[in-house]
Amino acid sequence: MMPVTGRIHSLETCGMVDGPGIRFLIFTQGCPLRCLYCHNPDTWKRTGGKEVTAHEIIETARKYKNYLLASGGGITITGGEPLFQADFVQALLLEAKAAGIHTAVDTSGFAPPAARKAVLPHADLVLLDIKSAVPALFKKISGVSITYTLATLNELKEWNVPVWIRHVVVPGLTDKPEDAEKLAHMLKGYPNIEKVEILPFHKMGEYKWEQLHEPYTLKETEAPSDELIHNIRTIFSRTMNIPIQ
Ligand code: SF4
Q1: Domain Radical SAM core, which positions (predicted)?
Q2: What is the mean pLDDT of the chain?
């Protein structure tokens, strides 16, 4: 059988924030979204990064297996958008599973049905990034429609895949209490959601936009205050009976 290949941007052996425990992070190359606050615009180009086989990546991850398992961790496939290379990511998940390593996929959920089906039922955990529950705002932030992400959310429930939701709070964009209420109420109907992570906007990737000669429109936007983050988390806690971080 031909080895399954794909393109990755990079690997990191000690991720602490992308799933439980310590994570071996695989940054896939290529993303069809153009989120205004993206901190990895260097992963956008489908043809960038380097070509690797799924097998060699999981062989590398296996070297850290004991250390990952001892921390309750595993591998997290992030990007870029992992669903953009569905066959490759499916192969990574199946090999990791065979090696006894916990798997997580960090995704925007923006992918056609076949790609979603090929990948997501094989993940032990999905970190689903929801930009907004307001369709026009979702489009403004990401450049794409909310439709695929909503379909992904429904399928993950149907397939009973554990989900952690991630939502970035950007002053002037996603800081309205009524929009947070709308998202919290929407998510309430999904018993497979285990946690919601409210993430403060930051500008750590701004220099990459400059290097790529891409216009960074959030130059003047400040990071949200602790109070704003607290208030948004409180809105979610009032509506959803799960950990809100
Ligand atoms: S989905 Fe992720 S990688 Fe793609 S543009 Fe948005 S933030 Fe960047």
Answers
A1: 17-238
A2: 96
